[in-house]
Structures are given as structure tokens and as C-alpha cells.
Amino acid sequence: MESKIIDITVEQKQEILQELIREKQLQFDEFEAAQLQKLKSSNSEDVTDDDRFERKREQMIDEIKMRAPVLDLLKKELDILKALQIAGIHKRVQLGSLVRTSKATYFISVSHPERLNHDHSWIAISEEAPVYQTMKGKKVGETFDWKEEPQLIEEVV
């Protein structure tokens, strides 16, 4: 993803954050609704054979339990996004920074696929992302290597 030369504003960073919160909230709400529907279905008595009903119910409950970590992760990501302090301009790359490099623009927050904002693409990455670990703490003008390619940090907001 090639970076287009622009000046990033705090307002654009706020727009990106709000977009991420909306999308993560929608994912959380839809996933939670699906889980609740499964739970309701597991308690329905549309099967007359008690053994079959219990097996079906146990399968649904097992599926709910297997999917619970996804719901927990979405909740954690929402909490991180809602707690971000992004009002100011960061001097160094840190959680909440919008970082434009010679190759891409990154929003340090939670993982999320590449998006477009004001005709400019950006990708949200978490603090656990290896690319973040290579640029963490750096400031404008410094470089870091990612996938054997140097990237210049052009802007940090």
C-alpha cells in the first residue's frame, strides 16, 4: 500500500477513531445478538425426544462457549478504542498515534483491515503487531525496517 503525501490532522485521526468504534460496536452487537439467539434456541423445546433435545442443547452451548473469546476480544478492542487519548499530536509513535511512513499509514490502536479516509488508505494495527514493535517510540525523520524494506516516518499525529 503506497502512501499518498498528505498532512494528517487531529480531526482526521478523530474520524478514523470514530469509524473504528462504530465498526467494532456493530461487530460486537451482531455477534452478541447471534450468541443470545443461540442461547434462546438451546432452550427451545421443538424436539420431542428428550435425548435428542439434550444433545442438541449441549452442542449449542458448546458452540456458544467456543465463540465467547471472540466476543471478549471485541469488547476488549472497544474498551481500548474508547479509552484512547488522541486529542494532541504525538512526538513519538505510541498507542493512539496516526503514523504516515514512506510506505503506508498506520493507526496504532486495534487490528483492523485497510480502510480509506479522505482518499487516503490507512491500516489499524495493535500494539502486538510486529510492524508496531519495529516503529514503537520512533519520531519523525527516523527509519525502521519492515519486511527487509526501510520505511521513513514522515508524520506522527
How does the SSE layout of this entry go?
Blueprint (H helix, E strand, L loop, with lengths): L9 H34 L6 H34 L14 E4 L3 E5 L2 E6 L2 E7 L3 H6 L7 E4 L2 E8 L1
Parallel strand pairs: 2-4
Antiparallel strand pairs: 1-2, 1-6, 3-4, 5-6
Helix pairs in contact: 1-2
Largest sheet: 6 strands, mixed
Silhouette: elongated
Summed up, the helix count is 3
Q: Give the radius of gyration.
A: 21 Å
Beta-sheet strand percentage?
Answer: 15-25%
Ends: how far apart?
20 Å
Q: What is the typical, i.e. mean, pLDDT?
A: 85
How many β-strands, per DSSP? 6
- Report the uncertain regions: 1-6
Element-by-element helix/strand order:
HHEEEEHEE
How do the strands of the widest beta sheet line up side by side? 3-4-2-1-6-5
Structural class: alpha+beta
Indicate the percent of residues in helices.
40-55%
Brief synopsis:
The chain has 157 residues and is of the alpha+beta class. The protein has helices at 10-43, 50-83, 130-135; strands at residues 98-101, 105-109, 112-117, 120-126, 143-146, 149-156.
Primary descriptors:
157 residues; alpha+beta; 47% helix
Mind explaining what this structure looks like?
There is one protein chain. Helix content is 47%, strand content 22%. The protein has 157 residues and is an alpha+beta fold. A 6-stranded mixed β-sheet has the order 3-4-2-1-6-5. α1 packs antiparallel against α2. The longest helix is centred in the N-terminal third of the chain and has 34 residues, at 10-43. The chain is elongated. 18% of the residues are buried. Residues 1-6 have low confidence and may be disordered.
